[in-house]
Amino acid sequence: MQELRVSVAEILGHPGEYRDIRLDRPISGVRTPLARVTEAPVHAELRAESVVEGILVTGTVRAGTTLSCSRCLDEFPSEVGLELCELFAGPGHESSVEDEAYRVEGTEVDLEPMLRDALTLALPFHPLCREECPG
């Protein structure tokens, strides 16, 4: 799979400047024991905005999922949607953020790790095919 690297060269170091990003690409391998993101494209409408500390990425993400009921283990389709707000630390600001923060790499941000993390955390822990499922 092609990495989701996006150039931010034109806005980096210019607080207040932004770039809108629209993605429609599959992200394979996002899963938990009872849920997984399908191979269909993940839809993301994001804004990369230059801030003093680096690049702030905000927006919405939607993805199709296949869930296994935590009671009967039957699989069923679903969808997950989420709002993102993540900072990519820019040059000179790496030490002011946590070690696990995302980073601007040269003049690019790699959106794939951020999207993988956000989608994994949005997957349900105990999905149910229906509330009254007896198991």
Give a structural overview:
It is a single chain. The chain has one helix at 111-122; strands spanning 5-7, 18-25, 31-32, 35-37, 42-51, 54-68, 75-89, 102-103, 108-110. The strands form two sheets. Strands 2, 3, 4, 5, 6, 7 and 8 form a seven-stranded mixed β-sheet that branches. The protein has 135 residues and is mainly β. The relative contact order is 0.25. The mean pLDDT is 91. β5 (42-51) and β6 form a beta hairpin. The protein has one helix and nine strands. It is 9% helix and 45% strand.
Topology of this structure?
Blueprint: E1 5-7, E2 18-25, E3 31-32, E4 35-37, E5 42-51, E6 54-68, E7 75-89, E8 102-103, E9 108-110, H1 111-122
Parallel strand pairs: 7-8
Antiparallel strand pairs: 1-9, 2-5, 3-4, 4-6, 5-6, 6-7
Report how far the terminal alpha carbons are from each other: 37 Å
How large is the count of helical segments? 1
Q: Low-confidence runs (pLDDT<50, min 5 residues)?
A: none
Task: Give a count of the beta strands, DSSP E runs of length 2 or more.
Answer: 9
Apparent shape: elongated
Percent helix, as a range, is under 10%
Mean pLDDT: 91
Range of strand content: over 45%
Structural class label = mainly beta
Order of helices and strands: EEEEEEEEEH
For the biggest sheet, the summary is:
7 strands, mixed
